[in-house]
Amino acid sequence: MITDSHQYLTYEEFGRAFFEIAVSEARVRAAVASIAGEPFEVGPMAQGPARSRR
User: Fold this and answer.
1) Residue 18's domain spans which residues?
2) Structural domain count, the chain
3) Residue with more model confidence, 28 or 48
4) What domain of life does the UniProt record list for this protein's source (predicted)?
5) 12 phi and psi, to 5 degrees?
6) pLDDT tens column, 14-46
7) Interior/surface letters 9-43, b for 16+ CB within 10 angstroms, e for the rest
8) Is residue 30 part of a domain?
C-alpha cells in the first residue's frame, strides 16, 4: 500500500539533492588535501566499445 506521506522525486531531483549534500566544499578540500603532494598514477584506461572488432 502506498501512502501520500512520501514525496516522490525524479532522478534529476534526487541527483541534484544528493550532489549538494555529498559534494560539499569541505569534502572536496579534504579529498584534495589527502592527496596533495603525493604521487598518484592513473591508467591504463579502457576506451572505445568492448569487443566491437574481431
Assistant:
1) 9-34
2) 1
3) 28
4) Bacteria
5) -65, -45
6) 999 998 888 888 888 888 888 888 777 777 877
7) eeeeeeeeeeeeeeeeeeeeeeeeeeeeeeeeeee
8) yes
Q: What is the dihedral of CA 21, 23, 25, 29, to 10 degrees?
A: 140
Give the C-alpha separation, 41 to 46, whole Å. 15
Residues with Cβ within 8 Å of residue 9, at least 6 apart in sequence = 17
Please indicate, yes or no, if residue 17 is contained in any of the structural domains.
yes
Whether 25 maps to a domain, the answer reads yes
Assess whether pLDDT exceeds 70 at residue 53: no
Residue 52 belongs to a domain: no
Cell 578540500, residue?
29
